[in-house]
Amino acid sequence: MSDRPMRVLLTCFDWDTHFQQLVPLASALLTAGHEVRVVSQPSLMPHVTGAGLPGVPVGAETGFLPLMAEIAADMQVWASGIDLDDPAKGKNWEYLLAQQAVFVPTFYAMVNDDPFIDGLIDFARRWQPDLLIWEQFTFGGALAAAAIGIPHARVVWGPDVLTRMRRHFLAAAQELPSAHREDPLREWFEWTGARHGFSFSEELTTGRWSIDTMPPSMRIPNDLPTVPMRYIAYNGPSVPEPWVLEPPTRPRVCLTVGISAARTLGHRLVLSELLDEFADLDAELVATVPHDQRGDGPVPENVRLVDFVPLHALLPTCSAIVHHGGAGTSGTSGVSGVPQILVGDMYDATERGKRLVANGNGVLVDPAQADARAIRQAVETVLSDPSYAENAARIGAEMRALPSPNDVATQLERLVREEGTDVRR
Fold first, then answer.
1. What is the pLDDT of residue 95?
2. Which intervals hold domain Erythromycin biosynthesis protein CIII-like C-terminal (predicted)?
């Protein structure tokens, strides 16, 4: 590869909060002088162009939410009881096979459908990038990189439970006769490989490199080639209201289930009960609650209800946050040095909560017992014990010490040049 700028293709399935995890790095690559394209389903294009990035729509105009609505009930039944890190089941072949059998058709293949993968590969062959970067669920990116023979990197925005789950699965498979080693994920990859002329390798599940925004003390240890990157909060285009920028007169607590959780799960807590619990607390509660979920009950003097507020602007003024464990909320809370009360069971939320507890920068509330009183008690615990703020500040400093996206853009250029791959003519 010559000294010319790189061509970098980034891809994410059609879900804006996952795409937001790519924006800081994509912008850094663009401002470093590299050519950048972001490929996704058509529904994501307004978010791509809204971030100032050049987008390429491929595949069908399906949208993630309609797909989720179609399969939500069935997925809940099949996924019921799956724990991404249950020590008692970590070596049970039937359980681990069931994990793979559930995740491949009900999520991986759903968000990486054939029209999207085929369109992504077709564009990659025409544009001939030097590097392909994919969001951790967007396996189509790994498949496209394999199809044209270029290095690829996966962006990891949380504890890497996928790799750990896969490692448990492969270890258990080795204990079986080869004829009995079913592998749904590999089979799915091989179907695409057969259409596009490449073979399976485990690198397709992890990327050549993992770009990891988790601080070392919050990561799941593994031996993968890792490129650490500082988490930079990106909440999309927004204009903070004046009150957000004013110093609070008493401890400020943010309550949010996040955009992803609100859209796919709804609010599980009863708002009126929460407001009653917080009414006499010497703190200001800022709660993100859509208008159609507020009801017409009274709102206590110390509560501010908002539809949306950019967390990167709000959290530096907060003493605590109650949230569901989503990537953007967790990352912004962590880098802002804010103690966290985590209430959620989406994907890796339990794992995040365990690591909060282990590091002393937050509290994990069992979602099954997360009523208004339990949340109030957790908030009081965090506000009254200064160790939570001290540990949250420590984690925040650890995150801010990681290489910036600008630094990572330079490192990726060096890694690609060392590979010596040049598909362009």
1. 85
2. 273-415
User: Is 182 domain-assigned?
Assistant: yes
Q: Quote the Cα angle for 122-126-127, to 5°.
A: 115
Distance CA 139, CA 154 (A): 9
The whole-model pTM stands at 0.91
Same domain for 304 and 378? yes
* Residues of the domain holding 332: 242-400
Helices (H) and strands (E) in the chain, counts: 19, 13
Q: Are residues 195 and 313 in the same domain?
A: no
Residue at token pair 């890694």: 415
The residue ranges of the chain whose pLDDT is under 70 are 1-2, 62-91, 257-269, 421-425
Q: Which DSSP category does 88 fall into?
A: T
Q: Among candidates 149, 64, 156, which has minimal Cα distance to 110?
A: 64
Residues sharing a CB contact under 8 Å with residue 189, sequence separation 6 or more, in sequence order: 139, 143, 200, 204
Please say whether the beta carbons of 33 and 7 come within 8 A.
no
What pLDDT does residue 289 have? 84
Token pair of 270 as six digits: 């009863």
- Predicted pLDDT at 78: 47
- CATH code: domain of residue 353: 3.40.50.2000
Residues 380, 411: one domain?
Answer: no
